[in-house]
Design goal:
Radius of gyration: 19 Å
CATH architecture of the largest domain: 3-Layer(aba) Sandwich
Organism: Mesobacillus persicus
Pathway: Lipid metabolism; butanoate metabolism
Largest sheet: 8 strands, mixed
Protein name: 3-hydroxybutyryl-CoA dehydrogenase
Number of helices: 12
GO molecular function, one term: oxidoreductase activity, acting on the CH-OH group of donors, NAD or NADP as acceptor
Strand content: 5-15%
CATH superfamily of the largest domain: NAD(P)-binding Rossmann-like Domain
Number of domains: 2
Order of helices and strands: EHEHHEHEHEHEEHEHHHHH
Pfam family, one: 3HCDH
Strand order of the largest sheet: 3-2-1-4-5-6-7-8
Number of strands: 8
Distance between the termini: 45 Å
CATH topology of the largest domain: Rossmann fold
Shape: globular
Structural class: alpha/beta
């Protein structure tokens, strides 16, 4: 595996692209928005500089990684000659299916097509292609360069060869992979969404302040980040889409907390908008 293409240059896409390029993969980042690609380029430049400052990369290694990355608005150009294509767009099934149909058309016959979905069915996505055995879900975690886990979720027809190559890819990135059988929410999102949603209910009920609930989880259960802080980092709009999907597929216990719905309606999307459960503009 030599060339990896990333479809979507948002928070997850640019993190995946950075990790691929610094692991010596030829990397192409595709997005329909030029401004999003420019934001991605700025992020990667900043991360390369920080990595050099921290001694994680030499100047030469950072320069080489920079040379390995290409940016394009053309999905056909991105998929061309790719060995692995990773879709990292919004958690909207119709959007993912449309992208996979295009990737199936443009990517080489041997290419693996992966979705970075945190909740949705790789079987349903793969069924829209002519290569379901080569489709899989690779669920990265934010921030991608720091987080060590990749959930490898197999669809109904995913082949053992595709699974093995996915594990080898993860190892090259310096990640640990776990194999999860497909079920809505997989392992991490299924548990994490429940914890975060209950924390939101506790805020709404006045059980404690946002800060104290997060502190209790960090110090009482040794979580590195509180559930409300984490939801702000992920994006409250993203979390709401996840909760709505899990509520639809797994039932009542995943009903989104009303305060989450209210914040998204107000445009309080978390860290990326400057306001969520915390105020980042101060």
């Amino acid at each position: 595996m030599e060339k990896v293409s990333v479809i979507g240059s948002g928070t997850m896409g640019r993190g995946i692209a950075f990790s691929c390029a610094t692991s010596e993969f030829l990397t192409v980042v595709q997005d329909i928005s030029e401004s999003s690609l420019e934001t991605c380029r700025t992020y990667i430049e900043k991360q390369l500089g920080r990595s050099v400052d921290k001694g994680l990369l030499t100047v030469e290694e950072a320069d080489a990684a920079r040379e390995r990355i290409q940016y394009t608005t053309s999905i056909e150009e991105a998929a061309e000659e790719a060995d692995l294509v990773i879709e990292a767009v919004l958690e909207l099934m119709d959007l993912k299916i449309e992208i996979f149909k295009q990737l199936d058309q443009f990517a080489p016959p041997h290419a693996i097509l992966a979705t970075n979905t945190s909740t949705m069915s790789p079987t349903e996505i793969a069924a829209q292609t002519n290569r379901p055995s080569q489709c899989i879900a690779l669920h990265f975690f934010n921030p991608v360069p720091k987080m060590k886990l990749i959930e490898v979720i197999c669809g109904l027809e995913t082949s053992e060869e595709t699974i093995q190559k996915s594990f080898e890819f993860g190892k090259t990135l310096g990640k640990e992979c776990v194999k999860i059988n497909e079920y809505p929410g997989f392992a991490v999102s299924r548990m994490n969404c429940l914890i975060g949603n209950e924390a939101m209910n506790m805020v709404m009920e006045g059980v404690g302040s946002v800060e104290d609930i997060d502190k209790a989880m960090k110090l009482g259960l040794n979580h590195p980040m509180g559930p409300l802080e984490l939801a702000d980092l992920v994006g409250l709009d993203t979390r709401l889409r996840n909760m709505e999907y899990l509520h639809k597929t797994l039932g009542e216990k995943y009903r989104p907390c009303p305060i989450l719905v209210k914040y998204v309606k107000a445009g309080w999307l978390g860290k990326k908008s400057g306001r969520g459960f915390y105020n980042y503009s101060e």
